[in-house]
Amino acid sequence: MLKIVLDCYGGDKSPAVNLDGALLALERFPDLSLVLTGDETELKKGLEGRTFDSSRIEIVHAPEVIGVDEKPTDAIRLKKESSMMKGVRLLREDDSLSGLVSIGSTGALVAAAQLRIGRLKNVIRPTFCPIMPKIPGGIVGVCDSGANVDISADMLQQFAIMGSIYLESVYQVKNPRVGLLNIGVEEEKGDQLRKEAYKLLSETPNINFAGNMEARELLAGDFDLVVCDGFSGNVLVKSAEGTALQMMKLIKSKIYEKTLYKLGAGLMKPMFKELKDFMNYQNYGGSVVLGARKVVVKGHGSSEGTAICKCIEQARQMQVSGISERIEAELPEYKKVIS
């Protein structure tokens, strides 16, 4: 049976939504058990009256919570009894645990993954890789989306390798098309870092490098994976999510301006629901941390139970697919290039 740690605090609606997601995941995956970290009294109270197999849930008391406004390095050093750090410590020390899911502080989780859990062999730095939907159908991954602001061309190459393995192993995307986020599609575009990365990616075997990608092409369907620095990637993902949300709000507000629009909206209601579901991040889970020694998944702080269940599913699938073993096996092939 696979065992995953769930940090039950740190989100906007924790711990209620964390418990909702935990029970959904247990119902969906019979081979799964969970270790819940957080205030034991509050978690037990939240589980009262619910139907679940108690043998598949373990609660580890962790009375502290890391706030999103706390300095990450201070938080992981000083708040050792927090739900996140208890989960990290369990994951690091217990080989029976397959992964950790958290919707808490992004900075603290990244720092903990690097400093407490450690990296896989030959990995320069772990990277965040969230998944987004493409307009024609399917998904696109973004590496990095916030873990590493200052990067090198070697790191972008590793992001491409690890991201491709992730998409192939977990989402069955065959030969993922890799794009380099840039200010233009021409080979000579961008700063020195992007030019060096373009050359390096072009020469890297076993990845399907498809050239530069402009931000407006993210959801168009021409790329399966986008590699970039964490600052640009975070802006890219949040801009796409925010634009989609605001467009839905604009359409909704316009519907109520005229009676004719209202009549038409009634006929198109199923289509609007499909569009809403299409862009709802709750249906796509969180950002996996690629390159860490153990599986780590970071969900949105505003996640509901369905999104947390999806994050647990991602962690489970990463373990089942053996992605860490693949990364360790394939990265040494590029050691002379990336060292």
Give the SSE string.
EHEHEHHEHEEEHEHEEHHHEEHHH
Mean pLDDT: 91
Specify the number of helices: 13
Cα(first) to Cα(last) distance is 38 Å
Strand content: 15-25%
Main sheet summary:
7 strands, mixed
CATH superfamily of the largest domain: Isopropylmalate Dehydrogenase
CATH architecture of the largest domain: 3-Layer(aba) Sandwich
* Main structural class: alpha/beta
CATH fold node name of the largest domain: Isopropylmalate Dehydrogenase
Low-confidence stretches: 335-339
> Order of strands across the widest beta sheet?
3-2-1-4-12-11-5
> Any idea of the CATH class of the largest domain?
Alpha Beta
- Count of DSSP strands: 12
Instruction: Give the domain tally.
Output: 2
Helix content: 40-55%
Radius of gyration: 21 Å
In short:
By secondary structure, the protein is α/β, with parallel strands linked by helices. The protein has helices spanning 16-28, 40-47, 72-78, 83-93, 106-117, 153-171, 192-202, 230-255, 259-267, 269-278, 305-321, 323-330, 335-338; strands spanning 2-7, 32-38, 57-61, 97-102, 127-129, 131-133, 139-143, 177-181, 208-213, 225-227, 287-290, 295-298.
Descriptive account of the structure:
The protein is an alpha/beta fold and 339 residues long. The chain folds into 2 domains: 1-120 and 291-319, 3-Layer(aba) Sandwich (Isopropylmalate Dehydrogenase); 124-250 and 278-286, Isopropylmalate Dehydrogenase (3-Layer(aba) Sandwich). 46% of the residues lie in helices and 17% in strands. The chain is built from 13 helices and 12 strands. It has helices at residues 16-28, 40-47, 72-78, 83-93, 106-117, 153-171, 192-202, 230-255, 259-267, 269-278, 305-321, 323-330, 335-338, and strands at 2-7, 32-38, 57-61, 97-102, 127-129, 131-133, 139-143, 177-181, 208-213, 225-227, 287-290, 295-298. The strands form 2 sheets. It has a 7-stranded mixed beta sheet, sandwiched between helices. Strands 6-7-10-8-9 form a 5-stranded mixed beta sheet, with helices on both faces. It is globular, with a radius of gyration of 21 Å.
